[in-house]
Amino acid sequence: QVQLVESGGGLVQAGGSLRLSCAASGSTFTIATMGWYRQVPGKQRELVATIPRLGNTTYADSVKGRFTISRGAAKNMLYLQMNSLKPEDTAVYYCTARDFRFATYWGQGTQVTVSS
User: Fold this and answer.
1) In contact, 41 and 30? CB cutoff 8 Å
2) pLDDT by residue (tens digit) across 70-107?
3) 93 strand-pairing partners
4) What Rg value do the Cα atoms of the chain yield, rounded?
5) Distance between CA atoms of 90 and 113, rounded to whole angstroms?
6) What is the pLDDT, as a whole number, of residue 42?
7) Alpha carbon distance 92, 111 (integer Å)
8) Model confidence pLDDT, tens digit, residues 36-67
């Protein structure tokens, strides 16, 4: 089992920056891939970025060049640096982890609001 706790959300003006953090605990040695998703009320949850234990990061086209996903040296921390934020980035952001058995875990979410 893996537990995920996000932090760092908040209210920011358009053009500003935020850094989201996600702390993983439990069986973190089983994690193969971590990522960030976001969801707006009434819409499906959408992928923002992923970072595998081995391999390349991936980003949604809408955030490429503005967001950067990274993991801490101890691999139990996940970050999302969000720059040049736009009002359409407003959403609840979820940290996710998938283990080697393809079980998927989710955090409780953190609200990001970008004002115009």
Assistant:
1) no
2) 998 777 999 999 999 999 999 999 999 999 999 999 99
3) 38, 110
4) 13
5) 5
6) 94
7) 4
8) 999 999 999 999 999 998 889 999 999 999 99
What type of residue is 98?
R
CA–CA gap between residue 31 and residue 25 (Å, rounded): 10
Pairing status of strand 77-82 against strand 18-26: antiparallel
Burial level of 104, CB count in 10 A (0-12/13-18/19+)? Answer: exposed
CA distance to 38, 87, 103, 108, per residue, from 99 (Å): 20, 33, 6, 18
Contact in structure between 19 and 112 (CB atoms under 8 Å): no
Q: What Å distances lie between residue 79 and 5, 41, 94, 103, CA to CA?
A: 12, 23, 11, 21
Residue 18 structure tokens: 């935020």
In this predicted structure, the answer to whether residue 19 has a pLDDT above a threshold of 80 is: yes
